[in-house]
Amino acid sequence: MCLGIPGQIIEIEDASIKRAIVDVAGIRRPINIACIVNEEHPVESCVGDWVLVHVGFAMSRIDAEEARKTLELLTELGEAQAEIEAMQNSA
After folding, report:
1. What is the DSSP string of 54-85?
2. Residue 1 above 60 pLDDT?
């Protein structure tokens, strides 16, 4: 299963190789943005974009509301997983 994590592009690190810095829940890391740029949306216009990040690549642009909902769902899933693991460990 492929899972994209929402993050917001905060700066362009190297436009020539389409590398940007994304903030994912307070963690900043470099990503490749080649999949989300084109003539209508060049590298320089990506700052501020919300994207789905998978294995170091921005796979698609999403709106802020979709990013918020996805982050909430991922948080809930993480909490559910922690509960399941706690129950398994107490058995």
Report:
1. ETTEEEEEE-HHHHHHHHHHHHHHHHHHHHHH
2. no
